What we know:
Largest sheet: 4 strands, antiparallel
Radius of gyration: 20 Å
Helix content: under 10%
Number of strands: 10
Order of helices and strands: EEEEEEEEEEH
Mean pLDDT: 79
Shape: globular
Structural class: mainly beta
Strand order of the largest sheet: 3-4-5-6
Strand content: 35-45%
Low-confidence stretches: none
Amino acid sequence: MLKLDTETMEFSVWKLPPHLEQSNSYVVGETMNGTLWIVYCSGWSIDVLRYGVDDGGEERWIFVGMIEYDEGANPLANNDTLHVVTMKDGFVYLATSEMILSLCLETMELEKLFPRSFRAHHFQPYIMAWPPSLVGNYGSFAAMQDGPNAP
C-alpha cells in the first residue's frame, strides 16, 4: 500500500496483512486523528484492524475486533454477501443487495441505515453538514412544539 503524508509530502510503502489477499471486500482509511484502519468482510463477518504499536513495541496491524452481521434478522435472498463500500470520519459503510449499513469504529456498533433501493455496483455516501437553521435551534421552534402554556 502506498501512503502519502500530506504534511511532509512524502510517500511510504506499507505492507498489508497477507490474509487480505483472500478478501475481495476491504477498505483502508484514516480516522479523524490520523490512525490507519482496515475493515474487511469474510462472509457475514466484519473484521477490523488498526495500525499501531503492539505490546512488544513493534509497529504492525493489530486486530481490534470482529462483528457478525445477523442476516437472520433481515433474511437476504440469492446468497447475498456483505461488501465494504468506504470509510469516512470514523465510520465504515457496508452494503448488501438489500441494506446499507454503517459501523462506528469508536464504539464498534453496526447499524442498519436504510434499505438499498438502487443497483449500482459502486457508490460513495455523500456526507454534508446540516444547515445552520436546523442545528441547535431550540428557541422559538421548541416553544412552538411544547405549546404556549408548557412549563
